Amino acid sequence: MVSLRSLLVALFCTAGFAAAKYSGDGTAYSDDYEKDSTGFNACGFGDLGDKWEKYFCALPSNMFEGGHCGRCVRVCGADSCVVAKVVDACASCDYGDIDLSKRALKKSTGYEWDRKAVTWSFVSCDSGEEEESPKKSSKGKGKGKKSEDRKSKKKCKYGRWKKSGKCKKAKDV
């Protein structure tokens, strides 16, 4: 049987795998089926199929890596969220910005032009669910028994730790 402590440690360790979220301006890229309107897309994609020819995006050049080609992002604006496929790099975008097809920008922000505040993260193209971030380690950083004890406790407000069902000051743990 799995102990409560083991479950809490497992939950703590997997919490570090949350997908990274970015925020910036969403801008208009081009119309449906025109992912190459500013020149050939940096990923070199041909036909992507009906869905992705309408919902595509470009990441800022300073965030773009060849490994992002074909990945999907969920972009959320004032109106709703939309999933788009990465096909290009955006030279005029700042870190956290994202350049979207007009349809994707309109669905998420209500506008198909202008700069509008959005948040975005990488998601699965199939399900639209957030992907795990490979950058964070699941290993604890603390040393010794006191650190291990704290990992197994739920954190309470104001730097207190839950022990025996009650919140206590960290120095009391």
Automatic annotation (TrEMBL):
- InterPro entries from the entry? Expansin_CellWall, RlpA-like_sf
Keywords annotated in UniProt = Signal
Residues making up the signal peptide according to the UniProt record: 1-20
Renumbered to this chain, the Basic residues biased-composition regions fall at 152-173
Q: List the residue ranges of the region (Disordered).
A: 125-173
Matches recorded under PANTHER family: EXPANSIN-LIKE PROTEIN 7, PTHR31836
For this entry, the protein name equals Expansin-like EG45 domain-containing protein
Q: What organism is this sequence from?
A: Chlorella ohadii
Q: What is the lineage of its organism?
A: Eukaryota, Viridiplantae, Chlorophyta, core chlorophytes, Trebouxiophyceae
